[in-house]
Amino acid sequence: MVTRKTWIMAAIATGAVVTMLGVFSNTAFGFGCSPFSMVNGWKNLSLNSMMESGGMMSSMMSDSPKDVIIKVVSSQQVSVGQNSQVTLLVLDRNTGQPITGAQVSIGLEEGAPMSTMNMIGSMFDAEELGEGKYVVKFSVDKPGYYTLHVHVIPSGKSMSSMMRNHMDVGIIAK
User: Fold this and answer.
1) Computed from CA positions of residues 66, 70, 76, 81, in that sequence, does the dihedral angle turn out positive or negative?
2) Least confident piece of the model among 12-26, 29-43, 144-158
3) Residue 165 pLDDT > 50, yes or no?
4) Which has more pLDDT, 24 or 125?
5) Is the sign of the CA dihedral 39, 43, 47, 48 positive or negative?
6) What is the pLDDT of residues 73-82, one digit of tens each?
7) 54-59: long-range contacts (C-beta < 8 A, 24 or more apart)?
8) Chain-centroid distance, C-alpha 158
9) Nearest by Cα to 162 from 12, 1, 2, 3
10) Using an 8 Å Cβ cutoff, are 28 and 15 in contact?
11) How many CA atoms lie within 13 A of 130 on its CB side?
12) What is the pLDDT of residues 20-66, one digit of tens each?
């Protein structure tokens, strides 16, 4: 059975292939940056490395969520070597009402957003708590700054909305 996460990763991979096909042009099909600079950042074409290609991903994602509001409602400081969690509140941008039934997909990166390209593991989904709250559970092995890449696909919306509804959350591990 094909899951929604599989479709998301396939869409990211398709975008990478389209970008790779643009290496002979000045821009990568309207993404507005040199495909050669993006290719240099790719380690290989595995699905997880697609999240690591900062040039392509950052140009495809919105600067701020378009359909939702994402708020961090817990501490952003976690303990090294322990199971940690961060709670998010997801609201409808137009009504301000809590969004339930959304898919909230998370990527965990060591360092500042799209700076190290060191993604820790694969993307995973946050757990819905109800009333628009979603909990992100993870652990880190060493102290430092981490980034949670939060992607929200509201219920009934297509997976392309994950790029419209992206926000980076800084995490400090001590």
Assistant:
1) negative
2) 29-43
3) yes
4) 125
5) negative
6) 999 999 999 9
7) 54/114, 54/115, 54/117, 55/31, 56/15, 56/16, 56/19, 56/28, 56/31, 57/12, 57/114, 58/114, 59/31, 59/32, 59/33
8) 16
9) 12
10) no
11) 0
12) 444 333 433 444 444 443 344 433 333 344 444 444 444 444 468 88
Name the pTM for this structure.
0.66
70-89 burial: b if 16+ Cβ within 10 Å, else e: bebeeeeebeeeeebebbbb
Query: Residue 84 is which amino acid?
Result: S
CB-based contacts of 160: which residues, under 8 Å, 6+ apart?
11
| Exposure on the CB side of residue 115, measured as CA atoms within 13 A | 10
89 pLDDT higher than 70: yes
Sheet with 133-138, strands from edge to edge, namely 68-72, 84-92, 133-138, 127-130
Cα separation, 4 vs 154, in Å, equals 12
- The total number of residues shown for the chain amounts to 174
